[in-house]
Amino acid sequence: MGKTKKIKVTLVKSLNGRLEKQIATAHSLGLKRIGQFSEQPDNDQTRGKIRKIGFLIKVEQM
């Protein structure tokens, strides 16, 4: 079995004053506070979420 690729996503800007959809997208990635990070699988669903809130987060390949 192959090893799945992972992406490290870090919240770098506040969610205060953002649209509800943007906040919900950040929460679906496991991000609630500035500086918090999560490891997500590198797939189309995750990439779509990253595109929606790319200005709020920092993304790193693992």
What is the approximate shape?
globular
CATH class: Alpha Beta
Taking all Cα atoms into account, the compactness measure Rg is 12 Å
Count of alpha/pi helices: 2
Proportion of residues in β-strands: 25-35%
Provide the succession of SSEs: EHEHE
Strands ordered across the widest β-sheet? 2-1-3
How many separate domains make up the residues?
1
Report on the biggest sheet: 3 strands, antiparallel
CATH level-four homologous superfamily name: Ribosomal protein L30/L7
Structural class based on helices, strands and sheet pairing: alpha+beta
CATH architecture name: 2-Layer Sandwich
Query: What is the mean predicted local confidence, pLDDT?
Result: 95
Straight-line distance between termini = 18 Å
| CATH fold naming | Ribosomal Protein L30, Chain: A
Give unreliable regions as ranges. Answer: none
Number of strands: 3
Task: Tell me about this structure.
With 62 residues, the chain is an alpha+beta fold. It has one domain: Ribosomal Protein L30, Chain: A. 29% of the residues lie in helices and 26% in strands. The chain has helices spanning 20-28, 44-52, and strands at 6-11, 37-41, 57-61. The longest helix has 9 residues, at 20-28. The protein is globular, with a radius of gyration of 12 Å.
